[in-house]
Amino acid sequence: MKIIRNLKIEAKEQDILADLFLKKSHRKELLIFCHGFKGFKDWGAWDLVAKEFAEAGYVFLKFNFSENGIGQENLSEFTRLDLFEQNNYSKEIRDLKLLLKEIRNSAFWQEEKLEKIHLIGHSRGGGIAAVVASEEQEIASLITWASIASFDRFGSEENIAQWKQEGSKNFYNSRTQQDMKIAFQFYEDYAKNKERLNIEACVKNLEKPMLIIHGTADEAVGFSHAQRLKNWKPDAELFLIENANHVFGASHPYCLEMLPQDLNTLVKKSVSWLKSEV
Question: Whole domain around residue 271: which residue ranges?
Fold first, then answer.
């Protein structure tokens, strides 16, 4: 298996870093994986997931959104909290679209004779992938893992007013024991682009195959989000994994050489769906 790590794609504040996984003989299809909130490409078991998809014959790409808080040197720690604070939904959509453009125009695309692109998004990344899949004709299909069904996760009007008054809102990371601030510009970006950031409208208008995978014990994004996505697109396939949590049994760091059972089920289902439906 060939693994190309930390390919650099120039973005406004910081380069997008991407990893590619592929076998010498592979399908002419590229899967692009979008991580979620406080996620990153080198989190937990994502390397093992990438290898499983490559073993199944796909070219798999995972990447860091440019302002996700991960720097360019230590790829497993949030060393750029200044960028994290200024990140927003529109910037992540911009990053994914830039990545798509660079890949399609690359020598790699021609050399590997690639023809199709599928998007996969976990958690918030599922929402970002849904927007881009609805806007870009070249996307062949959409797969969501534990995806949100709405970008409006800001709480009450009182909470928003307090956020505006204070200028930033703190999100404590219990794993790293860091205070991770998000500036009020995050909400302002959402309010300004509310029509574009309507996941319901994006999914209803999606004229391509969609697979929705969610755990019934998801503590971060309840599986009602998956049911809403399914309601908006009746021809999508909904696959629930009983008692699976938000990260399907994985953790960070993840030191085992085999996928946790729920994540393995997710990968197997995604691969079988891609081969039969797309």
Answer: 2-153+197-277
